[in-house]
Inverse folding.
RNA sequence: GGGCGCAUAGCUCAGCUGGGAGAGCGCCUGCCUUACAAGCAGGAUGUCGGAGGUUCAAGUCCUUCUGCGCCCACCA
């Protein structure tokens, strides 16, 4: 049988295609099995997927595949997000290259372009997810703007409106002058920037007095409607109630008021109040019933309220105001300060607070069940600190501005009549229900993209229809996402889920870290440091990428992407490939059609050892996956396969496989290898789905195409997860093999020290510590010989005398003699044994100190104390042997 | 202003509920041993950031300091 020496990664595509064709990814709403549901965080159709998506989707796939093999009706719903503003910006940029603007195309024409874009990028994303191996149920693929989800959005909007939880009002919103739309608080990024703090003074009407103040935005003087001072501030007490004059605004007079918002220590202790352009001032304005003068247009230019400055951009207007005030002798000074300014997260333009008529979701009542969900434990985060982030946001939540002055998105279902009546309903009304007029205008705005994603866990299952899917698969089990969208998305899904479904949309939130570049920077388009997952998959295969992404990192911490980190992953898969290849080459004459083990009769101690280790591994990996400790789970699998299985057991089995021992022993080695490999394939399958499928099927067909209820049958992904077989766990076999390993390591070390080449087979004499050890070394003689490069191994009686002219190695179960004749140098032997003696004495001393400590003996757990005593006994016995040897040298 | 994270071998990082410091890469030595040189065997390397504390026992828990990084926030 010809099997290539390395795994062919190009087979991944075929394997995926077969899975898809066979319907293995489908979940059935009518199944009797317990559901396990995961909703993909729908990637934005702005671009193809990046490395962060690769990690995020790998984690989801691991959980889904794990649960599917565990007998759950596992459903992973895939889909994409229209990403309102982000996509609109990207498409506008593309169109600009052709000299087209959205205005020239008109609303209809522009939306057509966006749907075309969606065809291309939505498709790319889906094909990337498939390349990665994602086992999504593609029959259920959704898009946030498809008909069903759009209907859900309308339904949610109308219901919230009817309950008074959505309202329209003039509020101060974050306005992006570049995008020409309002944005939510969450979309504003604060950063410290250098700026100026300008000091001016206004004359106080009817007096010769002036009131000084500081501002970082002088142009807003045009919209000032008061000057506020602290009620406790004696300096200005006499001015309260008087009016100040704004010379640059046609000498408009504004009241001087007292408000606790003012900090007397900052600036001059007096603050100009511009309710239309500052959130604090807006609040002050409400308290004092001040007028609100909006001085800016949506594009950032000064409007008609700015008088002579009308039409001027905000920066230019600022200069003009400063000039004018200086000319009037009302300028005092300028300080340089660093202060936090808000910028739009999509375009980095400084956000302008503006009063606008917008739609809002009233958050106070909606937030309560979301807070309660976490407090009651219905909702859990993988790390406590993420729960804190979630809580902090909810406890300080403000109303959510949901209207956006864009075209790409769900258009707000509000219809306006000239008579002033407003109708909010799912379908356009034929006429005004109040005055009967037929000419109605729909609201021009669309909804914040997160409004539709907030409904994702149930809108994807058919809500508001009562579908069997919704009944079966909601609520979902786990949400895997990154920390940066806890407020944007996680919080909102929770309160919408609580609101419309009466249930928390998921029980576990698994926050994964960010994939950074090798310098630890975030991968971004501007830095051009992004790495395309497809390129990596092309070169190494999806299994290698997946393995690398989840290895060697805690799931919640950020990880750096190095190409060098791919190699260990590739090497490991190559190791597994070759180990399997080796086993398959040695299966001749087995005569079994599967690899089940009914009884351990006739199995060697090394067989029982590896089966025991494999059973422990199964238990550990299962437990780690249940608790979402993915990195720890995969590490255990890799260590087991490479170290215990390949480096020890396979080597130990060789003499038996090569037919140098009995036919029965060969068969038990074969069956053990098949059994352990089969388990290893399954445990590794969620992480590396392709290679494990290939090997599982190859091993199955070598055994004769066994078909016993799916085992080694048609696909690994629908096979049963290995059962945790407690009966296979055998501490005595594990202890025994540890003794053999210790002996082998001792011999190898001596060989290296004496520079005996591997080709030189040396004789080994073993004097076991007791009769049990004698039996052990007798039965593993051939394996030990192979592992230590020995020509002949003879096991003597426990009481046998030491051979002369030999190097001795004292191990736990035996003293081993290597008759190396000419190589033996008694000086060196004495030194070596003395060193060993010292080491043992130190160990014993350390344990004695511990056991001599009253506190330890009184308070430490019994098992810990016992283990220390046992170790001491072992060291003491070895010390006696070493001293004996020392006397003989 | 508030909150959080990180600091462990030359590098990148594991180390879950406290019980004798680990992996990969790199480095040194020797090997093409009939599965694998993408490999095998042997080896060197750490006051687990500093200082206190709790405990029989601290990389692990508490306090504090230092240095990086992140998030939230309306000081004009």
């Amino acid at each position: 049988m010809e099997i290539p020496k390395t795994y062919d990664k190009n087979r991944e595509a075929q394997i995926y295609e077969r899975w898809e064709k066979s319907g293995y990814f489908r979940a059935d709403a009518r199944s009797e099995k317990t559901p396990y549901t995961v909703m993909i965080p729908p990637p934005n159709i702005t671009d193809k997927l990046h490395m962060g998506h690769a990690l995020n989707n790998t984690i989801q796939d691991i959980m889904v595949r794990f649960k599917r093999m565990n007998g759950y009706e596992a459903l992973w719903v895939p889909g994409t997000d229209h990403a309102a503003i982000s996509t609109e910006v990207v498409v506008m940029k593309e169109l600009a290259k052709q000299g087209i603007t959205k205005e020239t195309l008109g609303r209809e024409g522009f939306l057509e372009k966006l749907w075309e874009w969606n065809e291309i990028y939505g498709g790319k994303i889906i094909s990337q997810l498939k390349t990665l191996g994602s086992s999504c149920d593609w029959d259920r693929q959704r898009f946030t703007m498809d008909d069903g989800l759009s209907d859900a959005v309308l339904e949610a909007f109308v219901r919230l409106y009817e309950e008074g939880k959505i309202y329209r009002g003039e509020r101060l919103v974050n306005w992006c002058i570049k995008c020409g739309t309002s944005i939510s608080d969450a979309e504003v990024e604060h950063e410290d920037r250098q700026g100026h703090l300008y000091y001016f003074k206004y004359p106080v009407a009817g007096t010769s007095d002036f009131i000084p103040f500081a501002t970082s935005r002088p142009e807003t003087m045009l919209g000032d409607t008061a000057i506020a001072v602290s009620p406790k501030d004696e300096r200005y007490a006499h001015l309260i109630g008087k009016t100040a004059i704004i010379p640059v605004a046609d000498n408009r007079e504004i009241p001087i008021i007292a408000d606790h918002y003012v900090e007397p220590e900052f600036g001059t202790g007096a603050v100009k109040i511009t309710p239309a352009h500052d959130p604090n001032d807006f609040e002050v304005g409400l308290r004092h019933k001040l007028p609100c003068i909006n001085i800016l247009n949506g594009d950032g230019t000064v409007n008609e309220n700015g008088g002579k400055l009308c039409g001027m951009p905000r920066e230019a207007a600022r200069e003009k105001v400063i000039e004018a005030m200086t000319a009037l002798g009302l300028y005092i000074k300028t300080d340089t300060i660093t202060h936090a300014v808000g910028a739009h997260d999509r375009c980095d333009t400084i956000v302008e607070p503006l009063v606008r008529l917008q739609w809002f979701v009233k958050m106070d009542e909606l937030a309560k069940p979301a807070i309660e969900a976490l407090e009651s434990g219905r909702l859990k985060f993988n790390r406590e600190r993420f729960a804190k982030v979630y809580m902090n946001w909810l406890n300080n939540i403000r109303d959510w501005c949901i209207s956006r002055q864009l075209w790409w998105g769900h258009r707000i279902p509000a219809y306006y009549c000239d008579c002033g009546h407003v109708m909010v309903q799912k379908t356009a009304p034929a006429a005004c229900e109040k005055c009967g007029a037929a000419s109605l205008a729909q609201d021009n705005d669309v909804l914040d993209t997160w409004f539709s994603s907030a409904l994702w866990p149930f809108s994807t299952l058919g809500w508001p229809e009562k579908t069997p899917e919704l009944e079966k698969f909601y609520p979902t089990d786990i949400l895997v996402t990154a920390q940066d969208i806890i407020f944007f998305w996680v919080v909102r899904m929770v309160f919408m889920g609580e609101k419309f479904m009466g249930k928390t949309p998921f029980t576990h939130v698994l926050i994964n870290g960010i994939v950074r570049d090798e310098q630890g920077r975030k991968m971004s388009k501007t830095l051009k440091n992004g790495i395309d997952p497809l390129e990596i998959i092309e070169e190494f295969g999806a299994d290698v990428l997946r393995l690398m992404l989840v290895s060697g990192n805690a799931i919640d911490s950020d990880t750096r992407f190095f190409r060098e980190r791919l190699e260990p992953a590739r090497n490991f898969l190559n190791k597994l490939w070759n180990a399997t290849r080796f086993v398959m080459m040695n299966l001749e004459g087995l005569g079994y059609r599967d690899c089940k083990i009914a009884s351990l009769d006739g199995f060697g101690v090394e067989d029982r050892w590896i089966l025991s280790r494999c059973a422990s591994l199964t238990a550990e990996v299962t437990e780690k996956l249940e608790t979402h400790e993915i990195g720890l789970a995969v590490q255990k699998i890799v260590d087991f396969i490479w170290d215990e299985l390949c480096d020890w057991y396979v080597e130990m089995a060789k003499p038996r496989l090569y037919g140098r021992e009995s036919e029965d022993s060969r068969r038990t080695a074969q069956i053990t290898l098949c059994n352990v490999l089969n388990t290893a394939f399954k445990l590794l399958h969620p992480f590396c789905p392709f290679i494990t499928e290939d090997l599982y099927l190859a091993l199955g067909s070598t055994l004769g195409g066994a078909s016993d209820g799916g085992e080694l049958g048609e696909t690994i992904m629908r096979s049963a997860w290995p059962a945790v077989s407690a009966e296979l766990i055998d501490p005595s076999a594990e202890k025994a093999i540890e003794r053999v390993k210790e002996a082998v390591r001792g011999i190898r070390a001596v060989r290296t020290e004496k520079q005996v080449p591997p080709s030189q087979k040396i004789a080994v004499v073993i004097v076991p510590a007791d009769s049990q050890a004698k039996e052990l070394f007798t039965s593993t003689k051939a394996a030990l010989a192979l592992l230590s490069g020995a020509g002949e191994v003879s096991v003597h009686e426990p009481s046998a005398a030491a051979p002369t002219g030999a190097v001795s190695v004292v191990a736990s179960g035996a003293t081993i003699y290597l008759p190396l004749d000419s190589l033996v140098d008694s000086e060196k032997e004495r030194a070596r044994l003395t060193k060993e003696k010292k080491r043992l004495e130190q160990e014993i001393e350390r344990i004695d100190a511990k056991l001599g400590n009253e506190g330890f003996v009184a308070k430490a757990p019994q098992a810990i104390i016992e283990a220390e005593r046992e170790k001491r006994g072992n060291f003491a016995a070895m010390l006696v042997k070493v001293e004996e040897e020392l006397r003989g040298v």
